[in-house]
Amino acid sequence: MFKTVSAFADNRSRPHPTSALQAGSLAAVHSEKDAIVLFGDKKPRFRVVVSTENVVFSQDYQRTGGTVMVASNVCIWLNGAVEAERPSWARLWNVAQKRYSTDGGANRIVGREPELAPPDVVLGDMDSILSIVAEGLKSRCLLVHAPDQDKTDLTKCLEYIAQDFKKGLQLMYFQVFLLLELYSTGVVASRVLLLGGTSGRFDHTMAAINSLYYSSKIMDKDVFCLDGENLTCVLDEGEYVINVDRQHVTGTCGVIPFCQRPTVVTMKGFRWDLASSVSEFDLIVIGGGSGGLSCSKAASEYGASVALVNGVTPSPHGTTWGIGGTCANVGCIPKKLMHHAGIVGKEVDHAETYGWTNVEKGKHSWEALVKVVNDRIKANSWIYRVQLHKKFATFQFITQWIGGVKLYTAIASFIDNHTVKILTLRAPNIVLATGLRPRYPEIPGADNGITSDDLFWSVKSPGKTLVVGASYVALETAGMLADLGLPVDLLIRSRPLKPFDQDCVKCVVEGLKHHGANVIYGREVGEVALDGDKRKVTFKDVSTGQNVANDVYDTVIWAMGRDPQHGTLNLAAAGIDVDSSSDRIIVGDDDRTSARNIYAIGDIALGRPELTPAAIRAGQLLAGRLFNGSKELMDYFNIPTTVFTPLELGTVGHTEEQAAYLFGAENIEVYHSHFTPFEYVVPQDDDSAHCYAKVMV
Predict the structure, then answer these.
(1) One domain for residues 504 and 411
(2) What is the CATH number of the domain that holds 102?
(3) Of 71, 371, 568, 573, which one has the greatest count of Cβ atoms within 10 A?
């Protein structure tokens, strides 16, 4: 099943006329000829492949005067499918210096006598060997009963062989005459060949590979696993170059990072040259958040071939996540779940007034809540990936993508206005939807604080927390933690929730205080220093800049705003202009950037609201304009929005300040209402003191 190839493990070796693979080569290959090639050893040495129809053998050689020494094989026959009818397999087994078999493998060997020589050792728990086979082999080989059920029979067999090697398993030497000039710099050593093991059930295959890895720890020998289609070996720790000669090798070569530290595997040349190849699409979408997903899926439904590139740069504390963007992973979804957890706690307080007796409010478990939230996040991420796969699977792969969404998990960068470098992707149209990430202050010890990117994934309770900021993220976070019973200080430098109506904001802040948050105005953080596992915070007066106080917290959370994520995109190469003050991408009403074939949607676009539903709809409409002949533009006016503080704030339309500026204060009428929600009447909830509605006409 393997093609005839000569492998030279020393770069100075002269190539055999048939072919040559470079040092450290390794492959799984296919052919109609009966030939086996063993290569990829841990030690450099010379190797010659002898190949005929009846004799197929690959041996290590070393020149010593006029004699060439041959390192012989030790073989293990496993209880798996091995193509013993091929002369090559029988030859490998019969000429082995010593033959070992697992108990199940012995049944296969005896069943093919006299073609196959009997084993020298049969080892295992003896639960698979037939009694008639065991009786027949008793006088011809050593039967070793190894009842240990914590190890596979293969692992036990390898341990037994390792002990044989330590006892001094002798090598056989003989003279051979070759017409080739031999070169060698290595040391001759025996090897172990496992026949079968990787051609049956997947779990058995992985168990055999695990035993291969284990063998490298117990013996200084090269161990290979052979079956009808694969050659598998373990590479020691270090750097390797693995090359496949396409003229003489078909099939694939795979590398599994197995039981080791993080490893980078470069797959150049195994199936295609990723560095120089270009994949063509109708549309490239960069950013797998709400806007990017909606645009990708809508475009694919219109028949476009779509590449969706999603890469998440880890936070300074190493937090990262999958597809779905901020909302699904570190925003709307986890925030609403934790907000609701606080509401549930409050409802328990009201239970007895509604007739529930013997209700006891237990202690809240942050760890349990985070697990539930993270499970939901991961489930959503899986759903998004399945949805993309379904879009892709409905179309046929011919020579290019015809419809569907191909997901690339990578950080993208522009080469020009049509080309994106991950591998290399090209499309006539490109959409940017990379969103925003939390901003860190430029103060000493800023990295000792975290952001919302980290909070929802933290398995440890934040404990006493300082939330810094006046944004909706700051107020929502402070309220959520306070409702969960944690001590919270909210530090507001100036005016909270600036884009919102300030009459409403006053009620929101009073509600925060009522729920236990301590709101501090007029101060800012000057420094965050580590104090054991605590954070010592120095406060400065905003007006004077002088240090005015210190306090110690378990957690400091920065929530002072969010910045665009396009630093790695190389926007200049594509001719994309950004706003100098906000760093957001400048777009027109049709979402088009200064590069006419590139569009930007969602939070990264200048002037767009930071709202998930707005990004979703903008992506859908853009896909319709690009691939369905639509002319409809996104209307960003009168989009409802909600702030999920303990007293939730919902709004639509202009604030009073905006209305007075646009229409004149004398031309608007304002109606106020302070009210008590009906469900608050029975428990006489104090929140009713802060419930408020405001209407302007």
Answers:
(1) no
(2) 3.40.50.10240
(3) 71
